[in-house]
Give the backbone structure.
Amino acid sequence: MCGIVAYIGKKQAFPIVLKGLKRLEYRGYDSAGVALLNNGSLNIYKRSGKVSNLEGFALKSDVEGNAGIGHTRWATHGAPNDVNAHPHFSNDGTLALIHNGIIENYDILKKDLTSKGYTFKSETDTEVLVHLIDDIRKNENVWFGEALRRALHHVVGAYAIVVISKDEPNKLVAARKSSPLVVGIGNEGDFYLASDATPIVEYTKNVVYLEDEEIAVIDLAEGLRIYNIGDQEKTPYVQQLELELAALEKGGYEHFMIKEINEQPRSIQDCFRGRLNATEGWVSLGGIREYEQKMINANRMIIVACGTSWHAGLVGEYLIEDLARINVEVEYASEFRYRNPIITENDIVIAISQSGETADTLAALELAKSKGATILGICNVVGSSISRITDAGSYTHAGPEIGVASTKAFTAQVTILTLMALSLGHKKGMINDSKFHTLLAELEAIPDKVKTVLESNKAIEKIAEEYKNASNALYLGRGSSFPVALEGALKLKEISYIHAEGYPAAEMKHGPIALIDENMPVFVIATHGNSYEKVVSNIQEVKARKGKIVAIVTQGDKHVKELADHIIEIPETDEFLVPLLATIPFQLLSYHIAVMRGCNVDQPRNLAKSVTVE
Ligand code: M6R
C-alpha cells in the first residue's frame, strides 16, 4: 500500500507530484506529504487525511522547486497523523525519504540508531531508513546514493524508496524490493518516479520498471543509471506505456466504481478480443499457449489469490473441473504461503490478481516456484510484479480499475478463466465440437447481455432504497453462483459497512438460518440450471421464517417471482456463464446502498486498492 511519486527536471515539481498523488490515492489515503528542493533548501509539507488536505495546507506556502518527492499513506506502523506522514527526514534536515512497504527489522535498527544519538520523531518503521542512510553517509563518507545501497544490506522487508538530498539537488535515488516502482524518462531531460505508471503517463510513455533489489540513480547531468544492490550496473530496459490518460478519468460519472461497473460490456469484450472467434470456432490464450499441454497433463492446478480475485478463482474451479476435467484447488494466498503446502513439479500454480502486486499472492507464487511448479498469472496491470515473475500468463485487459471495490477486474478474470476452461476442455476432448461452439457463441454474446443487465440500474436503485438501513445481509448461491454470492457479500460490506455473508444456499440450514427474521435481507441467485429447484426450496425456507428475498432470476421466470419480495432479471445464458451476468446486479446494489448511506464509495475506510503488505 502507499503511493509514491517523485519528479526531477526543469518544471515545477509540486503540481506534478500532487497530481500524481491524487492518481495514486487509491493505494492509501490516510495522510500525505511532499518534500521540495528549492535553491538549497528542503521544504516538507505533511498532513493527515486525503491529498486534498495536503494541497490546501501546502498551497499556503510557495511550494517552489524543480525536484520533489510525495507520498500518500496507508498506515501500518503508527497512527495516521501529520507526524507519521511521509516524507521523513534526517536529523540534520539534509535528506528526505518516502517509502512504500514494511521494514521488518525496524525495531533492531531503531535501537541501534537511537544508541548512536539519532532521534525519532514518528512511530513509523520508515524513519529508520532515513537515519540509517544518514548514518552511513556520514560515518563511511559516501554520497547519499551509495549510503542507500549500503543501507539496504541491513534492511529486512519490503520497500520502494525514493531519497532526495539538499546537498545534491540534481539527484534522486530510488530502490525497490517487493513493492513496485516505475521510472518515467521525460522528453525534456526530466525524470518521474511512481508506484505505478498512472502519474507518469501524462508526461511520457517511456518507462523502466525496476526489478527487485535494483537501485535507480537519476542525475540530471548523467541521466538514469540502474544498479543492483551488489553495485553492478545494469542496462535499463525501456518499455512503452500503452495506458491512455482518458482511462484514468471519471468520464462524467460520479464515482470510479459506477464508471467501472458500466464499462463491463467493453472490458469483457476487450478481454476476449483476438482470443475467441465463435464463427470460426476457436479460442486461444496466446500468453499461455505453450503451457496448455502441461496444464492438461498436470497433477492439479492450484489457484492462489486474495479477496475478489479469490472469488474469481472459485468460479474458475467450477469451470475448469467441469469443462476440462482437471483437478483444481483454490487457495487463499496468505494461507498457502505459510502452511508448507505439498507442491511438485507437476503442479501448475496460477495467481489471479488485478494489481499484480498483492504481497501474499506474490509470496505464494515465489514459494511455488521454489518447489519447481510452473507458475502462471492472470493480472490486469501490465508490467506488474506478478506478471513479471510468472513463467507465462494472460492479461485481463480490463483497463485501469481505480475504485477500491473490484468490479470489472472480477468479470475480466472470470472471462479469462472461462476461455481457459474452454480451450483446455476442447483440446483434451472433454467437450465435443457442438458444445464448444455453443459455449463460444454464448460467451461472445455476453457483453450485450451485460448491457441488458445494466439497464436494470434504476430498478436496482429502488431495491437499494428499501435495504439501505439493514444491519446484516445474507447472500446465497449454488454451484458457480456460490462464489458470486461471496463476491456480492464482499462488495456490500467493503463499501457500505453492512455486515454481509455469502453461503452456498444449501449450507443455510446448517447455521445461518438461525439469523433469519423479518429484518434480514437474503440475496439469492436463482437462475435456471441444475440446482434451480433446490434454490427455490431454500427461498421457501427463508420465506417461512419471514426473511426478505431479493432474487436474481432468469428473464421470464415466474416461479421465484411469486415467492420473492423483489426480483432482478438477467438474460438467459448457459449455466457456465451465469457468474458473468449475476454478479452485476450485486455490484449495482452495493454501489447504490453505499451512496445512500453517504459512504466514500471509491475509497472505503481502512482499505487500499493494492495490498502490498502482508
Ligand atoms: O489486486 P488483487 O486482485 O490481488 O487484490 C486482491 C484483493 O485485495 C482485492 O480483490 C480486494 O478484495 C478488493 N477490494 C475487493 O473489492
